[in-house]
Amino acid sequence: MSSRESRVSDLRIVLLGKSVSENSLVGNFILGRAAFDSEAPPDVVERVGGRLKDRHLIIINSPQLLQTNISDHQITHTVRECVFLSDPGPHVIVLLLRHEQCSAEDQECVEKVLHSFSERVYQHTMVLSTQEPNETNDILQRIIQKCANRHFSLQRSSSPDDLLQMFEDIVKMNDGHHLECAEAAQYFTVKQQTTGRRECDDI
């Protein structure tokens, strides 16, 4: 199998959040090992490979992209890096959002970031929460509804297999196709020709 064919068969997941520690927790939960460092700099986008059941996963971890104080320039640059590292495109985008922290400003930031990927981004997106809500957050509920009500609540009893099933359902709903991020395609072609990226793929 060629390297291109191998990349196409991978399940590529982009984790977007506000917190290095929370993103690391979720990434490590999915892969079942300490793949991400909770002390890593927040502006670093990491790409790590692993296996869950019979599925090879590539996780692209961006723990700062949903921070409301991020600049438009940072959004553009970081989204481009996420798409480049998930070449030829991500299958699933996971929003790490907390009920008690989700404000109108957060919703605006989420929409801006997601639309930077693609207009069709919600077909590939889900929400993941790491805490049980004390009360319903209407803004978070609206975001979940835009993601076709795909929401996973990470609890002590949660299994990575359950989360993998949700990923597979998203892939199936999109007929196996990854998200096309056409606006950035030319940029990545040039970048691939001129730079090499640090990767940590453990198969």
Automatic annotation (TrEMBL):
Q: Which residues form the AIG1-type G domain?
A: 11-179
Q: Name one GO molecular function term.
A: GTP binding
Query: Which key words are in the record?
Result: GTP-binding, Nucleotide-binding
Query: InterPro entries, from UniProt?
Result: G_AIG1, GIMA/IAN/Toc, P-loop_NTPase
Top-level taxon in the UniProt lineage:
Eukaryota
Which Pfam families does the protein's record reference? AIG1
Transmembrane as a keyword?
A: no
Q: Keyword check for Nucleotide-binding, yes or no.
A: yes
Question: What family does this belong to?
Answer: Belongs to the TRAFAC class TrmE-Era-EngA-EngB-Septin-like GTPase superfamily. AIG1/Toc34/Toc159-like paraseptin GTPase family. IAN subfamily.
UniProt name for this protein: AIG1-type G domain-containing protein
Species annotation: Cyprinus carpio
